[in-house]
Amino acid sequence: MTLTEGLREVLDGPFGALRQRFRAELPAELFAPLPPDATIEEHRAETWRRLEILASTGMQVLPGVEPVAAFELLGHANLSLFVKVGVQFGLFAGVVKNLGTQRHHDDVLPHALDLTLPGCFAMTETGHGSDVQGLLTTATYEADTDELVINSPVPAARKEYIGNAARDARVAATFAQLIVDGINHGVHCILVPIRDEHGAALPGVTITDCGEKLGLLGVDNGRLMFDQVRVPRTNLLNQYGNIVPSKGDDPLEPPIRADNYRSGAYVSPIESRNRRFFTMLGTLVRGRVTVGGAGAAAARSALTLAVGYGLRRRQFPNPLAEDGDMLLLDYQAHQLKLLPLVARSYVLQSAQHDLVAALERVESGDFGGDEDHARRELEARAAGLKAVQTRHATDTIQTCREACGGAGYMAVNQFANLKADTDVFTTFEGDNTVLLQLLGKSLLTQYARDVAELDPVGIARFVARQVTGTVVEHVGGGVVQRLLAGAPANADKALVDRGGQLAILTDREQHLLDGLAQRLRAAPKGDPVASARLYNESQDHLLAAAEAHVERISLEAYLEATADENATDPEVRQILDLVADLYVHDVVFQHRAWFLEHGRLTPNQSKEVVRRRSALCAELRPHATALVDAFAIPPAWLPNELLDA
Amino acid sequence: MTLTEGLREVLDGPFGALRQRFRAELPAELFAPLPPDATIEEHRAETWRRLEILASTGMQVLPGVEPVAAFELLGHANLSLFVKVGVQFGLFAGVVKNLGTQRHHDDVLPHALDLTLPGCFAMTETGHGSDVQGLLTTATYEADTDELVINSPVPAARKEYIGNAARDARVAATFAQLIVDGINHGVHCILVPIRDEHGAALPGVTITDCGEKLGLLGVDNGRLMFDQVRVPRTNLLNQYGNIVPSKGDDPLEPPIRADNYRSGAYVSPIESRNRRFFTMLGTLVRGRVTVGGAGAAAARSALTLAVGYGLRRRQFPNPLAEDGDMLLLDYQAHQLKLLPLVARSYVLQSAQHDLVAALERVESGDFGGDEDHARRELEARAAGLKAVQTRHATDTIQTCREACGGAGYMAVNQFANLKADTDVFTTFEGDNTVLLQLLGKSLLTQYARDVAELDPVGIARFVARQVTGTVVEHVGGGVVQRLLAGAPANADKALVDRGGQLAILTDREQHLLDGLAQRLRAAPKGDPVASARLYNESQDHLLAAAEAHVERISLEAYLEATADENATDPEVRQILDLVADLYVHDVVFQHRAWFLEHGRLTPNQSKEVVRRRSALCAELRPHATALVDAFAIPPAWLPNELLDA
Regarding beta strands B183-193 and B171-180, do their DSSP bridges make them parallel or antiparallel, or are they unpaired? Predict the structure, then answer.
């Protein structure tokens, strides 16, 4: 086994065989860039054609989470196709599967999966993007006709940026406030036909095209307005909220308690409206998991191109270069630009696999303990990793574009597409700032539970930790080990010890949460305005805690994936260790002001982090080719101009 | 005078009347976005048409530096036009003016300025981008015919990314190694006709199109290869390097000493080949000054759009919002994204005016003392400000795009164009990393001179400063005032005192240079490889010093521009002061790890910087509209969808 192959196996983790099959079987034509003068309609038509080719491989009906682990690789080279896959199979077919019942699984799902029924996922509205609970579209049950009436009462209720809506979709899985008997039961999803078989909008449905976007030209985003559109009651995806039929003997699915069984009544297996809402929103989790993975895949493409260029392009004569001009990647500044991002890509790939495994456990019911808890934890983790990975993608692709100079600006070298197509990832499928807050709030909730569950000794220890933290901060010196059990005796040693590294990131997360909880505890009871102000003023603290959590769990995932038993080859082992070291030093480098402010590092230790991070880049430099080759992106998927000498 | 007008006057600085005229007189059609399906040829043709409209205003022949101060405003809304202006009037006409002599000024310049002679500036080569001294194109003088033979001896000598070359230019100002009598006299510039009047390539000239780019679709970048192309000797732009005519009685310009006057000889008023090279490269300075300014102008457009959207778009119910959903800009996280960038835009605008004023002094010969020194300082400052302003542009436009969510991704809202068109600014007209190194080296040179010029007392003081610095770092506590004369007695007070703020940034720059000089002094004499390694390992240090310099001079420029006598209105005064405070706190915030590592801030002081930066954003929030309105971007230049309620 070659070094590259050894690294690739670690990177592919539990999905190696699947991903190798995906790389081998997907025809290269799916990834060929369109000619520069292609019209938007040509982009859309070609993307649909490629979606059909992809569907013919049957990979969209792979079992369990396999499609998630495979389709993120589309992010390497065709983001429009990735998004179309996500909209049709992930969101549309997914919501039918997750929120629908047997009849929908029988009548709708097969057509969604074989593309005979193109659909869209109509959640976002012009007036409400991130705030789904505030959606304005209504679905009013009319007992007389046993129908639901879908309506957009105001312009702000217009469905906005809906993928597949402008051209292809014939049905919209429409999120609306469900009103039964004059009572609003909150957001539900209803299948609403929007186009006839010839592609014309159906009566009462107004479809407009969002027009040209910054990128993703192959995705037909559109807007939908509904003017009292009638659909049968059975179009309600009724897994978690149902209406007892007003006529006929349609069996009610899922079965509910007989005493609620009143004709025309709203019934739900979930009593709490809030909990019902979040259960339905759980359908978004697959999308977020996959978007984060695809963003990271795009970043790996950019790094493959930029590292390759840095190993080919020479600039300025230098005594360090034997034959005159020096390779770009031999300059320290160039190494510092690219190699920490390579290390981060490795670590995030492991975190992504871990997330997919968590998704699999939840979807298959294989969680120890409380289902709600497992779901909430999955959603929080998916939100956080989506935010961190898409941020990583945007930053990395930009850095790589610049690292290739003028060549990076030429459309043929594909940075233009990678940049433009992934750009929206930071704000769609949940805005990153909103998602990190979601994670942060979830961590706080868990934190409150942890404290609540402590026995008196635990509480005493908890308080002691607060005090220690405070004291250490005030004396301004201190080292990491004082705060951590099991870590080496000082920060210098902790930084080169796996347990110590983990302890450093764990301590940061924990201390941020401690501080946040203390800060928010000061909120005056019964004064919502003052509490809201305090909360608003702590947003930066909340976001930092969420980010620290993702950094810690990512390192954990990487250290598990690269444990000795998974990487026995000494050369592979050495490189994986350097990657872990560089990741940790880069994270500490980025946050070293915090470590200094909180007495976790002395000034000299912090300077050593700066020095060591540079040194680690130099140590990884000889392995640069192997590091990016292990990303295993099929050469036919990438442009070759930058890489060929 | 309104508040907005008061702020605008400060922002426009010495060029208020000129810029107001530019805003009023330039027809809005110059800024209308092209339809999304426009072809590249349509973009190019329309951009040329707009260039003609612009030329008809006569602004390209404004006196002195006025075109520089005015044309940066094109960066608000039409970057392709900006670049075409820069190539035709700045680079092409500029090099004719600066490197040419009377005959070129008479015969060529008027046609360059009235667009009857479209030209290009052919410097960059496929094999050499940043390393101009290493260019491979040759211009060999043939005494028999009194001609220069222009040749591209190898594929790497191909001229690359040349603006105007693919479609419009008829002449290329070509940089080539000038060979006379078999001796290479270094890089010179020669006017080489490349197209006939019908647009066909001339014999021996191969022109290819660089094709589609990430942005700047209106700019026709091309490649040029020369196969033994002959031009008259008089096509050499011969201000700083000349050839004595081998025949005829063509008067030699500029006049040179008679004893060098040998037929067919190379002669130059500048003996040092290196100095001659840098004198010729001085022609690049105007381009760099203008590109930095245009990048900053594009950032101001993005901020105008994003701040406007943040003051219109509501998301999530919140007790802090009286009428339900909260405005985006009332969230702390949103303020922290946008308002420090607004403050930075204010400060950089002043720095840009200062730079243009320095350009004016050098161009008009109004420098105290040594011309070489004044030019080098100008070039270093222009390089640094170009790098910092274009980095600011890329980061700001990205942040603003994201702050507008899905709306930011729609092409109609223009972030797509702003992003794509300015993206190349970080790497063209000098790669930012290379430019910051150029500045850093210049600061080091100046530093060495300062030390060399010290008398014994000065040297003693200098050494004392080193020691103090070291001691303070080692005890790990310390406050800024110990290191600085004239600043308040502690860092807390220095941070809220103008002199203290300046002292803080000055101290950082100085200490970075001190440390760098000490570090490089360890280079072993006579061991070029070891020295080169040491230098390479100090690249991050050098880049940090250069950035610190730009931050310091930018604050100086802003404080001068906003001195009491320039802003007497109390409300204007208050806002300008808040902007200064936010800028300083943001700079210290970004670098607070360094301040902690070097004993300039205690941990508690550093935490206070974090807190105060947030508080300053909240204090500036009520003035957000005035702050961006004062950018005075004509509404017709910007899209209106995000700003209209």
Answer: antiparallel
